[in-house]
């Protein structure tokens, strides 16, 4: 599983998923990922100390600050261009498996008492984000 986590002042995908201060998470599901993979990343993400404290230092998590998370499915995080210019997505999960683990990821994140918004799984989406910092962190499990 691959995550691109960006701290944002606001982010919106389509007309449904919108957050103010928090994290934008682009989520790619790999063919070998399981619910255990999700559980590991949820623990890391929920406790990730990238939110600013009163002194402006990255000391707090989204849980600490009651910030929100916008989760957007992004299978292109598994693009492989090692054999040419046209990306291969052979290492990405099948759409059914990816949907199952995406839904599980969102549910587990909500279980952490974090407000979660989402994009539309498998759909073309336009994302607007006002990055804060910028702070961008890559996770791969």
UniProtKB/TrEMBL annotation:
GO annotations of cellular component type: cytoplasm
Biological process terms in GO annotation: D-amino acid catabolic process
Span of the annotated motif Gly-cisPro motif, important for rejection of L-amino acids: 133-134
Keywords: Cytoplasm, Hydrolase, RNA-binding, tRNA-binding
Highest taxon, organism lineage: Bacteria
InterPro entries associated with the record: Daa-tRNA_deacyls_DTD (IPR003732), DTD-like_sf (IPR023509)
Cell division is among the record's keywords: no
Cellular localisation: Cytoplasm
Gene Ontology molecular function: D-tyrosyl-tRNA(Tyr) deacylase activity; Gly-tRNA(Ala) deacylase activity; Ser(Gly)-tRNA(Ala) hydrolase activity; tRNA binding
Transmembrane segments annotated in the record for this chain: none
Catalytic reactions on record: glycyl-tRNA(Ala) + H2O = tRNA(Ala) + glycine + H(+); a D-aminoacyl-tRNA + H2O = a tRNA + a D-alpha-amino acid + H(+)
Enzyme Commission code(s) on record: 3.1.1.96, 3.1.1.-
EC class (word): hydrolase
A UniProt-annotated Pfam family: Tyr_Deacylase
Family from the record: Belongs to the DTD family.
Subunit structure: Homodimer.
Role, per record: An aminoacyl-tRNA editing enzyme that deacylates mischarged D-aminoacyl-tRNAs. Also deacylates mischarged glycyl-tRNA(Ala), protecting cells against glycine mischarging by AlaRS. Acts via tRNA-based rather than protein-based catalysis; rejects L-amino acids rather than detecting D-amino acids in the active site. By recycling D-aminoacyl-tRNA to D-amino acids and free tRNA molecules, this enzyme counteracts the toxicity associated with the formation of D-aminoacyl-tRNA entities in vivo and helps enforce protein L-homochirality.
Domain remark from Swiss-Prot or TrEMBL: A Gly-cisPro motif from one monomer fits into the active site of the other monomer to allow specific chiral rejection of L-amino acids.
Protein name: D-aminoacyl-tRNA deacylase
Organism listed in the record: Candidatus Woesebacteria bacterium RIFCSPLOWO2_01_FULL_44_14
